[in-house]
Write a structure and sequence with these properties.
By secondary structure, this protein is an all-alpha fold. It has helices at 2-26, 31-65, 68-73, 77-82, 90-95, 100-114, 119-129, 134-145, 153-176.
Length: 177
C-alpha cells in the first residue's frame, strides 16, 4: 500500500501539469506565452514586496537580539508551566506570527536540544503546523495588492493563532503527555 501511495505521490505533480497544459491547449490558450507573462508578473511582484520582507527580517532580528523577546516571554512562563507546558516553547509562540523562517529556526533549535520525538519537540511541530505567519502575511500580501488599511485582519489573524496554540497545547497534552 505504501509503495502505491509513494508512486502516486511521485506522479501527482507531473500529471497535474500535463492536465493543465492539455486543458489550456484544448481551450485555445497560448500556454507558453501565458506562462512567460505570469513569470514576468511574478518577478516584478517579488521586486515590489522585497522592502517589506527585508523590513520584517530586520525587525525580528532586532526583537530577538535586543532582549525584547525574553522580556515578552518572561511573564508567561509561570502560566504555561502551571499547565504542564515547557516554557522553552514560548519564543516559538511569540515569533511564529511574525515570520516563518525564524520560527522554523526556533523549531529546529528545539529539535536539536530536546529531540523531535520528545514532548516539546512534538509540541513545537504541532504549534508550527497549526498557526500562521500572520504579520508576515499581512505585510507582504496586503502590500502586494495595495491594501493600506487591514482593519480587523490583524486581530482576527492573531486570534486564529491563539486558537491554534490552545488546540495544539490541548492535543499534545492529551495525546503525548
Amino acid at each position: 500500500m505504501f509503495a502505491l501511495l509513494s508512486s502516486a505521490a511521485q506522479w501527482a505533480v507531473p500529471v497535474f501539469l500535463l492536465v493543465v497544459v492539455v486543458h489550456g491547449w484544448y481551450k485555445g490558450v497560448r500556454v507558453y506565452e501565458a506562462f512567460v507573462e505570469g513569470a514576468r508578473e511574478g518577478f516584478w511582484l517579488a521586486v515590489k514586496i522585497l522592502p517589506y520582507i527585508v523590513g520584517i527580517y530586520v525587525a525580528i532580528g532586532v526583537f530577538r537580539d535586543s532582549g525584547a523577546l525574553a522580556a515578552v516571554t518572561a511573564p508567561l512562563k509561570p502560566l504555561l508551566q502551571a499547565m504542564g507546558v515547557p516554557a522553552e516553547i514560548l519564543p516559538l509562540m511569540v515569533v511564529r506570527p511574525l515570520s516563518g523562517p525564524p520560527s522554523l529556526g526556533l523549531t529546529l533549535e528545539i529539535f536539536d536540544r530536546y529531540g523531535p520525538d520528545s514532548f516539546i519537540g512534538r509540541l513545537a511541530s504541532v504549534l508550527y503546523g497549526s498557526t500562521e505567519t500572520t504579520i508576515y502575511v499581512l505585510a507582504v500580501y496586503f502590500a502586494s495588492v495595495g491594501i493600506k488599511k487591514a482593519r480587523y485582519s490583524l486581530a482576527v489573524g492573531l486570534l486564529a493563532d491563539l486558537a491554534g496554540y490552545a488546540a495544539a497545547i490541548f492535543l499534545c497534552l492529551w495525546i503525548f503527555a
